[in-house]
Description:
382 residues; alpha/beta; seven-stranded mixed β-sheet; elongated
Amino acid sequence: MANNSGLVTAGPDDFAGELAREIRAAVAQAAPPGRARVTDREANELEDVRTPLRRAEEHLTPTVPDAARFFGAKSAVVRLLKFLWRGQASFNALVLEAGNGLVAALEQNRTAIARRFEELTGDLAGWREEARRRDSDQDARIAYLETVPERASAVSSRNPPAQDPGFPESVYALFEERFRGSPSDVAQKQKFYLPFLRNVPGPVFDAGCGRGEFLRLLQEERIAARGVEASRLAAETCRAAGLDVREGDAVDALAATPSSSLGAVVAFQVVEHWPAAQTFRFLAQARRAVAAGGLLIVETVNTGSLSAMNAFYLDPTHIRPVPPEALSFLCEAAGFRDLRVEFLSPLADSERLVERSENDVRVNEILFGPQDYAVIARVPTE
């Protein structure tokens, strides 16, 4: 519809269609390349080299068979004439040694190539599975987008909303896909926490579990776990993957959990989405719900790194950064003990300054320090 100034306002159909096209483009860009065909040759190509080398070794030094006639005389003649072929024999031995070394090197190289091919085959299978999962996720988002105009029309025909309904789930899902990283990358970073959660005294509660990367890791480790996620799209994706995930508010779900019934509560990249009062309520409920000796893990953006803070403000749903000192204090105030702060996700050396002095080290810490940190704490046993 054109207004008086000549500008054109896109309708919800255009907006949803544009998002759907962008999602499909992202899926196409993320798809792995096709697998190249590799022919496995059954014949041993090095046998043509080994055979003449073995035959040459048999004639390296003249010998007389023990059962030969006139063995003594012939042996004496061979010993007397050794000086005639001594240099040639040394040359022949060196050539054979070099030939055998070359064959061994070729065999080692072929073994390494075969091993690398097997690794690449496994990687390719993983890429295909990742592409299949992302296709499934994107189909759910496109289906959601296609219903936006109908639901918007139904709402406006009844009653206009009293307030902003919030950031569109499908848009934020696409944002995560583009800027947070693939689920496999996220899961690789989160493997750091698995040793802490083995043998905890109960199931793990994942607050704001998102796409379910950590729940999948716990499932592979056979650690009982469940999650709560505010996004309907993300919760449905997790359930489709066989994960125990409820849609809803994580703090409310934690408040409804019986006391001392959990082994651990984890929250990855969540508290920066909450006001301070909500964060403390979450920590207090976690302290109540986790059994003695249980664990709390809270990961968020490292406020001490300016490059990390740039990423913080990139996310349109972030409310406020939480410094490590503030989060540690709130955890202690909620009743957790044995706190430790782990700084994670360091930048590659290529993204940092070359450190030639102590000042360079300090500048790197301030500008290009670790991107995340986590507070890890326990519920006291006494």
